[in-house]
Amino acid sequence: MNPSSRPGGFTLIEVVVALAIVALGMFAVFKAIGDTAANIGYLRDRSLASWIADNKITEIRLSGEYPSVDKTEGDVDYAGRRWHWIATVSQTPVEGLRRIDMQVRRDGDAEDSALVSLAGFVGATATAAGPSSTPWNRGAPAPDDGEEP
């Protein structure tokens, strides 16, 4: 058979090589999709843990009590999952100001695998220090409470 009269088309080797290239490309695409899905789950959990840490620090601030230097921990159910938090309160060099270090992890994760570590500060309130420390008792005008004299 004359090479110029050979029928057009692909040989078996060309087809196998083309399929191998397509398979490698598809493998790369599926791996990228799987990695993206795993990252989405991790970022969702980090966001939830951050919200829990922020909520716990806010609860301490709004409790009305000046927190003692201590370490406390507990569990909370949030977004259909159980979470473990650890709050460590420490004294700062500034008198009347304490630091709160909050760590949050998924329940069942290793103790040293916090998803989020968040720090906040809480200070002693003016009412806890006594009425003489309020600004309106030191010559400053009193706040307007909406009543007329």
Number of helices: 2
Shape: rod-shaped
Order of helices and strands: HEEEEH
What order do the strands of the largest sheet run in, or round the barrel if closed? 1-2-3-4
Q: Tell me the name of the CATH class.
A: Alpha Beta
Mean pLDDT: 84
CATH superfamily: GSPII I/J protein-like
Strand content: 25-35%
CATH architecture: 2-Layer Sandwich
CATH topology: Pantoate--beta-alanine Ligase, Chain: A,domain 2
Count all strands and give the number: 4
Please describe what this structure looks like:
The chain is an alpha+beta fold. Helices cover 37% and strands 26% of the residues. The protein contains 2 helices and 4 strands, in the order H-E-E-E-E-H. It has a 4-stranded antiparallel sheet with strand order 1-2-3-4, with helices on one face. Mean pLDDT is 84; it is low at 127-140.
How are the secondary structure elements laid out?
Blueprint: H1 12-62, E1 70-78, E2 81-91, E3 97-106, E4 116-123, H2 126-129
Antiparallel strand pairs: 1-2, 2-3, 3-4
What would the keywords be for this entry?
rod-shaped, four-stranded antiparallel sheet, 37% helix, single chain, 149 residues, Pantoate--beta-alanine Ligase, Chain: A,domain 2
The gist of it:
It is built from 2 helices and 4 strands, in the order αββββα. It is an alpha+beta fold and 149 residues long.
